[in-house]
Specification:
By secondary structure, the protein is an alpha+beta fold. It contains 21 helices and 23 strands. The protein is globular.
Length: about 750
């Protein structure tokens, strides 16, 4: 009888109810799980799990896999219940429509309806409905008149107009219903006000900085839910204007000495106030991005972060004129960034690195032990909580691993991994000089696209001698690639003849052909094999513990970028001519959202750069460790792999384009490529046929990995500046945007 019962149970389990594919994906992502992790747990292929979540052509699990999958989804649904229709969207990239402050009389006429809400498509080449370019966005409203009431009065003034596109609001989490941050200012009546996201304004009763911190944690309801199941909620962020600094006894600007130190003196009266109230500062002290906290008790955190724009917290290279914005508008800019990327934790570079950790926390809670107690354990797929040494070839100059080298020794390619972006140019041919224009195209979010799907090492490297190359194994390989001849390469399955003298080598940043054995990251060596050539590594440092660590990071930043560009009227999958037209002047449609776009791009590049952060003063000397080495996220191998793959992705498109059109680049700088053309538009040399691009070549579009128009100059301009500086190889890609050349190109 028991066998019959088991058979019946198995039959019922084989039909276990499952939520729709979209909900399956939501639950997995809510817990920070990758497709690989779910596939490994259920002992199926990654593609199988992807098919179960597919919105277009979903597949259904069968047999014991279905029962296990249903059990997983049921447990996740208990942790992350779906919001009701009344609660609105849970995707922070889709702003809710809430009332906003009314526009002043002199503001531009508001649109009849809300601008499009740019929810990002699920993949770089997926389709989406293309919105029309939004009309002018109403200007921010003047601060409402002071209201009377309780000590923490909230008000959302104005009529029932839709908030401007991209305006975030508080989430559905009641702990953080007022959003992730507030800009604290003082009005002409002396009332302290906190400008939150979505047009909300709070009266602030705090008379001192310690009481402001207390108020923020107890009454303000600011913060942001964690991005991953095992992670931590984001601490509330307060942005202090100059008026708020004066109110709370802080300087409005830093002296030169304080600026260089990155903090105000330890003996400052406000720091003493905090100490008397039992508040602490992190090791970086009270600077432009200060963190004020008390040691955690249990799972409760007591921490508030400050951002001080007048102390140069918002670098103008990445945040434009954000520091000069009125409080409500600054709250909007930072709020959009926080809702779509994460609450800023410092510079865009710091935030880019913190986003990696937030999506893959180093530890998680274990299953209960015999006594019902949970313990902290390693979180699979993360970099862990302890730093690991890099390979000697991956170590930058001055690293402790190299302390035994002679003092003035210069490492060559056979000793040092040197994976960097392109900086290459060549003289133009006679045929190119007969054309009238130089047209630059730029790869959107190139380094983010290079990170997408990339397998990187998670743990320490293993040294091997005479290894057989494995393109799926991340690491650094010492191999001679000087035999790869670009005059004859494989493109797909076919061998093609090219003019190799007009192409940069894919193996070096300067485009020079290698002269012997050198260290390369896995994507570079794999490309040599793809081109049709045999490789025989001499030695390697490989990482057997590996995974697609950056996938979630890429997806988060991609979605943020696409959603914000959609708000600016540039949607995905626009026809080529319409895309170029939409990109023309997109920043002027909403300068505030344009700031967010710049900050998102800087988050990508800065976050990757932080993976190999160098010493920053600190009295450091060569051979000694520096502060960044103590981080698990100090991983120069991951940075090298992303740059390698980004450069290879670009070279692959260049080769495909040359094989099909006979056209070769004149200059390349990082993700910008310049071609000679008969017209001023990319459409004058990109081989579109009936609106379709060359498969595997350059494609116009806003998705990461696709290209946009960078700039156009005349061929005569290029020849003139090269002659003026007596530099036939001057990199014209550096100046193609506006044509301004102020001095000789030094490669920096």
């Amino acid at each position: 009888m028991s066998e019959l019962f088991e058979a019946v149970d198995a039959l019922v389990a084989s039909r276990s109810p499952l939520p729709p594919p979209e909900e399956r994906k939501r639950l997995r992502q809510a817990h920070g799980l990758t497709l690989d992790e779910v596939a490994a747990a259920l002992k199926v292929r990654r593609a199988t799990v992807s098919g179960w979540e597919s919105a277009k052509k979903p597949t259904e699990p069968r047999g014991p896999e279905r029962e296990a999958y249903a059990r997983l989804l049921k447990q996740l649904a208990e942790l992350y219940p779906a919001p009701s229709a009344m609660e609105g969207p849970t995707d922070p990239t889709v702003p809710a429509k809430l009332t906003a402050p009314p526009a002043p009389a002199e503001a531009r006429t508001p649109s009849p309806g809300p601008a499009p809400e740019g929810a990002a498509p699920p993949a770089a080449d997926s389709t989406r409905i293309t919105p029309d370019p939004p009309p002018a966005v109403p200007a921010a409203a003047p601060r409402p008149a002071r209201t009377t009431g309780p000590s923490s009065t909230s008000r959302r003034p104005g009529g029932k107009k839709a908030a401007p596109a991209g305006t975030p609001t508080g989430g559905t989490d009641p702990r953080f219903e007022n959003g992730p941050l507030a800009v604290v200012d003082v009005d002409t009546d002396g009332q302290v006000l906190a400008y939150c996201t979505g047009g909300l304004v709070l009266d602030v009763p705090a008379k001192s900085l310690p009481s402001l911190v207390e108020w923020t944690l107890k009454e303000a309801k600011l913060g942001q839910p964690r991005l991953s199941g095992p992670g931590k909620d984001a601490d509330p962020l307060l942005v202090l204007t100059e008026a708020a600094l004066k109110r709370y006894g802080l300087p409005t600007t830093l002296t030169e000495e304080e600026r260089l130190a990155g903090r105000i003196p330890e003996g400052h009266k406000v720091i003493k106030q905090l100490a008397r109230a039992d508040w602490k500062l992190t090791k970086r002290g009270f600077g432009p991005w200060a963190r004020i906290y008390r040691p955690a008790t249990g799972s409760e955190r007591a921490c508030v972060q400050l951002c001080i724009p007048s102390w140069h917290a918002l670098d103008s290279r990445h945040w434009g004129h954000a520091a000069q914005l009125p409080p409500a508008e600054l709250a909007r800019v930072l709020g959009v960034y926080a809702s779509r990327v994460m609450t800023p934790r410092g510079s865009t570079a710091v935030t880019g690195l913190e986003l990696m950790t937030a999506l893959h926390p180093p530890t998680r809670a274990s299953e209960p032990d015999a006594g019902g107690k949970r313990h902290s354990e390693h979180n699979p797929g993360s970099l862990g909580k302890d730093p690991v040494d890099c390979a000697p070839c991956e170590a930058p100059d001055g690293h402790p691993l190299l302390k035994d080298l002679p003092r003035f020794h210069v490492r060559g390619p056979g000793e040092k991994l040197f994976e960097e972006a392109y900086d290459w140019a060549r003289p133009m041919t006679d045929a190119e000089c007969t054309l009238r224009h130089l047209v630059g195209i730029d790869v959107n979010m190139a380094f983010a696209a290079g990170a997408n799907g990339l397998v990187v090492g998670l743990g320490a490297p293993t040294h091997v001698k005479n290894p057989v190359f494995d393109p799926k194994l991340p690491g650094s390989w010492l191999v001679d690639l000087s035999h790869v001849d670009l005059s004859r390469v494989k493109v797909g399955k076919e061998w093609v003849e090219l003019d190799g003298s007009l192409l940069p080598s894919p193996f070096t940043p300067k485009g020079d052909r290698p002269e012997g054995p050198a260290w390369y990251a896995t994507p570079t060596v794999a490309y040599a094999v793809e081109l049709g050539y045999e490789v025989r590594p001499i030695e390697a440092w490989v990482r057997y513990d590996n995974g697609r660590y950056l996938d979630g990071w890429y997806q988060r930043l991609r979605d943020a970028y696409l959603a914000t560009m959609a708000d600016l009227g540039v949607g995905a999958d626009l026809p080529p001519a319409d895309f170029l037209a939409a990109m023309d002047g997109y920043r002027e449609r909403d300068p505030e959202l344009a700031i967010v776009v710049s900050a998102i791009k800087a988050t990508v590049k800065g976050g990757l750069g932080k993976l190999r952060e160098r010493p920053r003063g600190e009295g450091w000397r060569p051979g000694q460790p520096w502060r960044a080495l103590s981080r698990p996220t100090w991983r120069p191998d991951i940075r090298a792999a992303v740059i390698s793959r980004t450069r290879i992705n670009l070279h692959r498109k260049i080769v495909k384009h040359a094989a099909f059109t006979g056209q070769y680049p004149v200059a390349i700088l990082s993700d910008c490529v310049v071609y000679a053309a008969g017209g001023t538009s990319p459409l004058d040399f990109l081989p579109y046929r009936e609106g379709k691009p060359l498969p595997g070549g350059f494609k116009l579009g806003i998705n990461p990995g696709l290209v946009k128009h960078e700039g156009t100059q005349e061929v005569l301009w290029g020849e003139e500046v090269r002659e003026r500086f007596d530099a036939p190889d001057l990199n014209l890609a550096r100046y193609i945007k506006d044509g301004t050349v102020t001095d000789i190109d030094d490669g920096e």
